[in-house]
Structure formats: C-alpha cells, structure tokens
Amino acid sequence: MQPFVRVQNLVQSGVSQVPRQYIQPLESRPNNHSHDQNNNDTPQSSNINIPLIDLSNPNDTILLDSIRHACREWGAFHVINHGVPLKLLHDVRHVGRSFFEGCPLTDKLEYACDNASAASEGYGSKLLVANDDTVLDWRDYFDHHTLPLSRRNPSRWPSKLIPNYGKVLCDYSDEMKLLCEKLLGFISESLGLTSSYMKDAVGELYQNITISYYPPCPQPELTLGLQSHSDFGALTLLIQDDVEGLQVLKDGHWVTVQPLSEAIVVILSDQTQILTNGEYISAIHRAITNASMARLSVATFHDPAKTVKISPASELVSISSLLRYRQVVYGDYVSSWYTKGPEGKRNLDALLLDS
Questions:
Q1: Which one, of 264, 261, 263, 252, lies nearest residue 228 by Cα?
Q2: For the segment 154-191, what is each residue's pLDDT rounded down to a tens digit?
Q3: Which residue, among 158, 213, 210, has the nearest Cα to 7 in the 3D structure?
C-alpha cells in the first residue's frame, strides 16, 4: 500500500494533475449524466434547491405538512429559525478553517487518526480503510466523538493550537443534540406517531462531528470531494460555508444545495428510512470539488447505539402498507457499510423484504 498523504498537502506541493488514486471511474464523475433523465436540462445548473422550512412557523399543520413533504420527496431540507445561535455557526466554521488553514502540517499530524481503522477520531483524509484499488475522496477532515459524554474527550482536539476550539465544539455539540431531538419529534408527529416515537426508537444519541475541508482541485471533473452515499445513522445536521459543493440526488438528478449561512441542512439517514417503513427516504448525496476555492462543511451525525435493534414502526405497517424492511442490529448495519462501502443505498436495499 502506498504511503498516505493529506489532500491539502498535495495541493500545496503544486500538483497540477490529480493522482491516480483520486480519479473516479467514468460513471461516478461529476460531469457524467448517467443519473440524469434529461441531459440538456439538469438541476445541477438550475435554481432548484432543497426545501426551506421555518421552524418558528406558529401553524403546526403547515409546519408538519412541510416536513412530511420534504422527508417523503427529498430526504433533505434546510431549516431556519432553528434555535441554534448564529454566532455559534460562525464560530465552528471559524475554528475549523483555522485548523486547516492556520496550522502547520506537522502540528496537525499530532492529531492524526488511525489510518488502519475506519471512523477513528482525529485528523484524516479517507472515509474507509483503503487498499491499492480504493478511489479516494478529495478532502481532509477532523472527526470528533462528542456524545454520549463518556466519548467526549476534548484533549484529543487541537485546543493547544486554537484556544477556544474545545469550548466551541462542546457548545455546538449540545446545540445540535437539542435540534436533533426537536426534529425527531416533528418527524414523528408528521407521520401521525407520538412526538417521542423516533427519539425512543433511536435511544441514547451517539454523536460525531466531522469538519470536512475540500481543497481546490486541479481537475475537478475527475474527482469527488465525497463519494455518493446515504448516511447510515438516524439524522445528520450539516452547515456549509459560502462555497457550493454539496449535492443531493433527486429523481435521478444531482441538485446542488445552495449555501445559506443562517440555515442548517437536515439529512435523513438510513435508520430513519427503516423506522418509517420507507415512508420517508434517506438522502443520497455527494460533494463535488472546484478548481479555485477551498470549501468547508461541518456535519453532525446522530446515531443509535450499536446494540439497538431497528425495525419499522408497527403503526406504519398495514394491509395497504406492507412491512418493507427486516429488523437489523445497528452495529451490524454499520459493519456492513464499512466493509462493503456505501455505493448509494446497497446496504439499505439488502434489508428489503420480498413484497
């Protein structure tokens, strides 16, 4: 296996061509229209965006209808007036960018994650344990284990390099948990379930916060910042900077999610699709790169414990809506995801029952 390097360091070295291990197969490249039903008019260049939902809407019926539509048709939506202080959104972007752009590589490598282990905490550049044939993403990241509190260890974070780093991440973690619980309540109610149903089904939230940094790419038409996938947990909350890059697959088209500085992107994950018996969908999404500007995003993942058993809500199963997914232990689902790789929703599809 070749020595592993950080993408940002590659760019700073002046590389003019994308190394072979970052080149996507033809069918996965961002300018390939194999997913698109109409190559002459794709939403990649249109004004289509994911739904925008105002959580302060005093009309519960309108709010729940909006959430129902977004979860059923998109699996992703923006929320505004979400209750998270806007200064905190700014601060977490700032400390993230300070780490990637303001600290020498030698200092950053002191916080390196274990390259031989998937999803280990720290500074890294690859999502899965790579072999020589693995196509790598054009991004670096810092992953933080933040909840439950027993997993949270700010000494593993670069507070020595950025003094307020730990406080900002802890405050952000707490706010994201509150918002996640609020959204799980709305999602439950929009399905006619009790407001606590999704929260109870997921159980104690396991939370990771991943700050991703996508350096400029000399050949963005050949690469992806993050390969196409759906998240394997329950709910992801994401913020972007002002550079485009996040895309959601909608009806066979890749739709660019326009950055909104005061909004938070809500992305439904696979366990939510199972719990809702397929009434709501997890969003297939990816990140593309560009040649001129670095991009930063902060994704907060909320998952069940590995021992939790996930199955569709019995209230959503009837003669007219048959049971669609078999029960799965969440830890087994995660192991499959990391062993086989994401590739769209193949791990979720493996749980489908014959109709």
A1: 252
A2: 999 999 999 999 999 999 999 999 999 999 999 999 99
A3: 213
